[in-house]
Design brief:
The chain has 799 residues and is α+β, with helices and mostly antiparallel strands. The chain has 23 helices and 16 strands. It is 64% helix and 12% strand. The strands form five sheets. Strands 11-13-14-16-15 form a five-stranded mixed beta sheet.
């Protein structure tokens, strides 16, 4: 039976294992195949609402068609939703209205980044759409007609002007100028009608500056640099009156753009340095700071580069490159690398120059930045021209020219004018063709260059530009003159007020002198009376001081006497006890003599003799204690004598302890001593130094007793007295583990009449007298303390 049972059990084991494995596989399969429900909820914030909104993403291979499977259904006011099933894992998604031409956009036209999510469970996701690609401007125009608030209407007009001015897809300079001017007029009416609170004046000033800058940027992109500069100088004037100096920094940055386009690089450098100077005084944690600092370094580096000061240009370009700007990295890398490439090319470092030109191109492509991309090609053409690689130079120059010619709108949307850059490429192509002996083509491009530059830099434009510069210089001179005049006026007022104040002071002094003279006799009489009172009070204070000092001495003597009384009690107890024993022994001895037991009588007489010796010993001990008390209490002669410091410290430690025990039977503390045997005897006045040691030990016992009353179980009051020889110094230390001395009163503890004890428990003279005694001995009394841990007083005496 046992054998059969064993085999049947062994056969069941593999079956059970297969069953468990099957269950685990089924469980794993169900986990892998688990589906999670994700509910997408979308809030449409655009002014124009829509019935058909679709979701697309990695889960449907970015299907941008009007697929009913991904059509969202209405689920509330301006709200739509859809529920989809997903396996666990990451997804990306966006919203559209039936094609990529109707995909969602940010309010001002920027792309909406792919929304990313890792699915781990059932979840509800809330999103919103601010605008649609095909209705980016239409929606805002519709919103403008429905808006009652002038302030919000201005904001909508600014957004429309921004999109027309700075987005290539919608670029229209006439429309941008129209809406910017419309917004500016409305903004000026708001300010004139005072429909805003003074606390918001900064916001309204910024809006005016922003609108003027849109107009200036449009004029700049159209090649009208003089008018652009004029408006930007007006902005600088507005910014100078704003509390936020970042407005001023931005205005100066924009001014350098016009000077750069007119190739006035001395003024570019001047205003770039001004921009950098203002930034040095601004808050570096402001989110605008790092981008403006990057711009300042780039402007200065570009000015030095064009002024042929390439070492300085490289210094500022490296400062620019060292700034780590997380937002819009492609933009900063594209333009920053382009400038570094130009500088390295001018310095003759062709390998680094090519590296940075290529880096500029690679960063320009993702953001469709034609300006740095085409400029980098022009830079490569100049490099290859220097290396006599004519074909490569011609290729890159031609690509650059083609880009600037075919993407004029894109360049204008960046706030620049293609003609400015083409005017620089034409001479480059002329030189390349000349090097290639194609003189007809060289002449053609040279002729085109002259004509183009004449349109950009003709006499009228230069004169207008110089007039704007002159007007700004005149305005600044007027401001400086007004500032000087205001300062002079202020100084004159100060002088006048000072003179009037001086005259008033003289009149007041004359009046006071007259009054004093009038009451002189009364004052003298009063002073005599007060003098007598003060002398009387002073005499009383001196008597009181002597009484307090005597009181302190008596308090010290009292504490010492209490200790001595306790000390003298022991030998007196011995004398009394042995006297009683001797009386009994004499009675016994007489009985033995009467009985004739001489041997026993002699033995008893020996005991009596021994007891008498002990009585004599303890009597002498009591005599020594009394003499010590008399020595402490008598007036000392002030004569130093060799004294055993270790014995003195030990004696006063015991006396202080027993003195406090005599007053308070519950008092108890651990006493520790560590005496240096090498000290020997030193010359001191023992009564005075003893009084100092007694005072410090008594204070230490008071401190540990006070902490004992406040502390929980586990605290052990401890007072340590140590002596140590250190060269020609002798240290006497009294340490306690009490509450310590508060830092706020530490500087006052050696002052007369200052005490931390409750009223009536101290005169405040103990430490003051101790300090003076130690000073008289040519020593120092120091204190080291830590609140909550204890205090240590250290007496330093010369050996």
């Amino acid at each position: 039976m046992l054998l059969v049972g064993y085999y049947s059990f062994s056969l069941k084991i593999p079956t059970m294992k297969r069953l468990i494995s099957l269950v685990l596989l089924l469980l794993l399969f169900s986990i892998v195949q688990a589906q999670y429900k994700v509910r997408f909820v979308l809030k449409e914030k655009s002014a124009i609402k829509h019935d058909s909104i679709y979701i697309t993403g990695t889960f449907n291979n970015w299907d941008s068609t009007a697929n009913p499977k991904y059509l969202m259904k209405s689920s509330g006011i301006n709200e739509k939703s859809i529920v989809l099933d997903f396996k666990a894992g990451p997804i990306k998604y966006k919203f559209h209205r039936g094609s990529w031409l109707t995909v969602e956009k940010q309010y001002l036209g920027r792309e909406v980044a792919d929304r990313e999510l890792t699915i781990k469970k059932d979840i509800i996701l809330y999103d919103s759409v601010e605008a649609w690609r095909d209705q980016l401007i239409t929606d805002k125009k519709y919103s403008f007609t429905k808006q009652d608030s002038d302030t919000l209407r201005v904001g909508i007009l600014v957004a429309i002007a921004n999109i027309y001015a700075f987005w290539p897809e919608y670029y229209n300079s006439d429309s941008a100028l129209f809406y910017a001017q419309l917004a500016l007029d409305l903004q000026q009416r708001i300010i004139s009608s005072k429909k805003y609170y003074s606390s918001r004046h900064e916001d309204f000033s910024y809006q005016v500056i922003r609108l003027k800058e849109i107009i200036a940027s449009l004029l700049h992109s159209l090649g009208n640099y003089p008018k652009s500069l004029e408006i930007r100088f007006e902005n600088l004037n507005l910014a100078e009156h704003a509390n936020d100096k970042f407005y001023m920094v931005a205005a100066i940055r924009n001014i350098t753009s016009d000077y750069s386009s007119m190739k006035d690089f001395q003024n570019v450098l001047k205003y770039g340095k001004l921009m950098d100077s203002i930034l040095s005084s601004l808050n570096k944690s402001d989110p605008r700071f790092i981008a403006e600092q990057w711009s300042a370094y780039r402007i200065i580096a570009n000015a030095y580069y064009n002024l042929k000061q390439n070492d300085k240009a490289l210094l500022y370009a490296k400062k620019m490159a060292s700034l780590n700007i997380l937002a819009d990295q492609f933009y900063y890398q594209a333009f920053g690398s382009l400038l570094l490439a130009d500088i390295y090319s001018a310095l003759g470092d062709n390998s680094l120059s090519i590296y940075y030109y290529r880096k500029s191109m690679s960063n320009a492509m993702p953001i469709y930045a034609v300006l740095p991309y085409a400029s980098a090609h022009a830079g490569m053409a100049r490099l290859y021209q220097k290396e006599k690689s004519i074909d490569s130079a011609l290729y890159y120059a031609s690509v650059s020219m083609t880009l600037f010619q075919n993407f004029k709108t894109d360049v204008q949307a960046w706030g620049e004018n293609s003609i400015y850059y083409i005017a620089d490429i034409y001479p480059l192509l002329a030189d390349i063709y000349k090097d290639n002996n194609q003189l007809d083509s060289a002449y053609k491009y040279l002729h085109m260059s002259v004509a183009l530059k004449d349109s950009l830099y003709n006499t009228d434009k230069i004169r207008q530009f110089q007039a704007s510069t002159f007007n700004e210089a005149s305005r600044r001179q007027q401001l400086e003159q007004q500032s000087r005049e205001a300062k002079q006026l202020y100084e004159n007022k100060v002088k006048m007020y000072s003179l009037l104040t001086g005259l008033a002071a003289i009149l007041v002094v004359a009046f006071i002198l007259f009054r004093n003279n009038k009451h002189k006799q009364k004052a003298n009489t009063l002073l005599q009376s007060q003098k007598k009172e003060i002398e009387t009070t002073l005499g009383e204070l001196r008597v009181t001081q002597k009484q307090l000092i005597q009181s302190e001495k008596m308090a010290s003597l009292g504490e010492l006497t209490a200790g001595i009384a306790h000390e003298i009690q022991n030998p007196l107890n011995f004398v009394n006890n042995f006297s009683e024993v001797n009386t009994e022994l004499i009675d016994e001895m007489q009985q033995e003599l009467d009985n004739g037991n001489l041997a026993d009588a002699k033995a008893i007489s020996n005991d009596i003799k021994e007891n008498e010796r002990k009585i004599n010993h303890h009597g002498k001990r009591a005599d020594a204690i009394v003499k010590g008390m008399l020595q402490h209490s008598r007036n000392n002669s002030g004569v130093k004598e060799p004294t055993d410091i270790n014995a003195l410290a030990d004696e006063y430690l015991r006396l202080a302890y027993h003195g406090l025990r005599a007053k308070d039977k519950s008092f108890n503390a651990t006493m520790k001593t560590d005496f240096d045997p090498d000290i020997g005897k030193i010359d001191v006045i023992p009564q005075d130094i003893g009084r100092v040691i007694l005072n410090l030990i008594t204070n230490a016992f008071y401190a540990v007793t006070d902490k004992k009353k406040q502390s929980q179980n586990g605290y052990e009051p401890t007072v340590s007295v140590t002596t140590k020889k250190d060269g020609n110094l002798v240290m006497i230390s009294v340490r306690d583990n009490g509450n310590g001395i508060p830092q706020k009163v530490l500087d006052k503890i050696f002052q007369p009449f200052f005490t931390t004890k409750p009223s009536g428990q101290g005169t405040g003279l103990g430490l003051s007298m101790s300090y003076d005694i130690v000073k008289v001995h040519g020593g120092e009394l120091k204190v080291e303390t830590k609140e909550g841990e204890g205090t240590e007083f250290i007496i330093q005496l010369l050996n």
